[in-house]
């Protein structure tokens, strides 16, 4: 049951709220002059500018520096079950038009105007991540609405698992949690993406179990890999490596520091019948690449898909150094005329800085790069191009080393 929206009002300071006024969703604690009326943490409250101009409705939590997250700009909006159904239907209809929905991100927080909530669909299972108190209160209603809307398309959801175990929940005054929502089920699920089969463990995999955002970037490398010798760095559970193998690569090596990830990658290779052409190794990439270079190894395609090297502006210089190092080493391993696929999933590593870092790496490796493709996250991770909490984070480039 949803709590009725509150009549309390958040009044902004004069000159503040610039992010919200430019289309963003967040209001920080230092932008608020005062709150008029009583409320409970997580309540949906009015938001008004310093002069009384109505700015809409958002849920409030003074425990967080992001004190208000906007739900609607319409001062007349009623944040009830009908409102949430509209949001859910809009999100699902968008996915149906833009991506393969067999496995996809169904709700992407602020980009779907449901701040703090992520829902991934893996075949007939939903995985939910709730990061804000206000949306946490609406979570069960939204899940039930998703089931209802998908059932209208003949999709019956057999289970829901919660992966709200991110540390950021503690800033909202919430405990981290991992558990079934509803009846338990086997959390090891088989999915198919780009013709490649994977086992996804939604309970114990990273994030919600599988990185769906690279779906079409993985597909983009297939055309480069027929008959090729391929090196996939930071392979995790083998996704890029398996796309290369399915596309007809002569041999593929996938490397990751995680023994658990590599074990799952080997299982995925067996599932696809490509174990004879794909080899997975456990190693630290920063040690592994120089060792390959010292042995004189060369590849037709090198793929670099590292985790985010920085999650704050404070550590961006260290991150740049890491990105420069792996790209320089990767370029040195590409045969003349071969290809380098490289990416950054760090929000703070913007496109301009990432390209500058890659150029510096090319200079250090004494190679010339010819850009083949510039890509970003799959459309089920939509990008809202306003507000400071931009949903754009993934940069993906394919270069020919000439």
Write a brief structural summary.
The chain has helices spanning 18-21, 81-98, 133-151, 168-171, 215-222, 239-246, 259-272, 285-294, 316-332, 351-365; strands at residues 9-12, 26-28, 32-36, 44-48, 54-60, 66-72, 103-108, 117-122, 125-130, 159-164, 177-180, 188-193, 196-201, 229-233, 251-256, 278-282, 299-304, 334-344, 369-375, 395-401.
- Treating each run of at least 4 consecutive H or I residues as one helix, how many helices? 10
* Biggest sheet character: 7 strands, mixed
- What is the radius of gyration? 23 Å
Number of strands: 20
Strand order of the largest sheet: 16-15-14-17-18-20-19
Question: Taking all residues together, what is the mean pLDDT?
Answer: 94
**Ends apart, CA distance between termini:** 61 Å
* SSE class: alpha/beta
Order of helix and strand elements from N to C terminus: EHEEEEEHEEEHEHEEEHEHEHEHEHEHEE
Unreliable spans: none
Helicity range of the residues?
A: 25-40%
């Amino acid at each position: 049951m949803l709590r009725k929206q509150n009549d309390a009002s958040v009044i902004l300071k004069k000159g503040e709220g610039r992010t919200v006024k430019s289309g963003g969703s967040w209001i920080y604690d230092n932008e608020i002059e005062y709150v008029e009326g009583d409320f409970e943490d997580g309540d949906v409250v009015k938001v008004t500018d310093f002069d009384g101009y109505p700015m809409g409705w958002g849920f409030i939590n003074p425990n967080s520096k992001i004190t208000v997250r906007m739900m609607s700009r319409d001062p007349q909006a009623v944040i009830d079950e009908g409102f949430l159904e509209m949001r859910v239907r809009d999100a699902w209809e968008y996915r149906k038009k833009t991506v393969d929905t067999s496995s996809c991100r169904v709700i992407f927080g602020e980009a779907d105007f449901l701040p703090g909530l992520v829902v991934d669909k893996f075949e007939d299972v939903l995985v939910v991540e709730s990061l804000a108190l206000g949306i946490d209160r609406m979570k069960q209603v939204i899940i039930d609405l998703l089931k209802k809307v998908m059932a209208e398309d003949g999709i019956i959801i057999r289970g829901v698992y919660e992966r709200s175990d991110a540390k950021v929940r503690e800033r909202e005054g919430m405990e981290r949690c991992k558990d079934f929502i509803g009846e338990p089920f086997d959390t090891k699920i088989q999915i198919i993406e780009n013709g490649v089969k994977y086992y996804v463990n939604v309970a114990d995999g990273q994030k919600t179990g599988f990185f769906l955002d690279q779906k079409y970037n993985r597909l983009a490398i297939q055309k480069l890999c027929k008959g090729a010798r391929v090196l996939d760095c930071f392979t995790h559970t083998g996704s890029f490596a398996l796309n290369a193998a399915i596309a007809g690569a002569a041999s593929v090596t996938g490397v990751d520091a995680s023994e658990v990830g590599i074990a799952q990658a080997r299982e995925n290779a067996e599932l696809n019948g490509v174990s004879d052409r794909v080899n997975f190794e456990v190693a630290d990439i920063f040690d592994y690449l120089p060792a390959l270079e010292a042995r004189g190894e060369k590849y037709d395609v090198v793929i670099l898909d590292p985790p985010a090297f920085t999650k704050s502006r404070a550590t961006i210089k260290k991150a740049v150094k890491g990105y420069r190092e792996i790209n320089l080493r990767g370029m040195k391993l590409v045969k003349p005329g071969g290809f380098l696929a490289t990416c950054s999933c760090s929000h703070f590593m913007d496109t301009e800085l990432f390209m500058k870092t890659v150029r510096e790496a090319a200079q250090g490796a004494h190679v010339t790069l010819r850009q083949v493709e510039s890509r970003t996250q799959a459309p089920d991770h939509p990008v809202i191009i306003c507000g400071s909490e931009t949903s754009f984070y993934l940069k993906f480039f394919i270069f020919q080393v000439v």
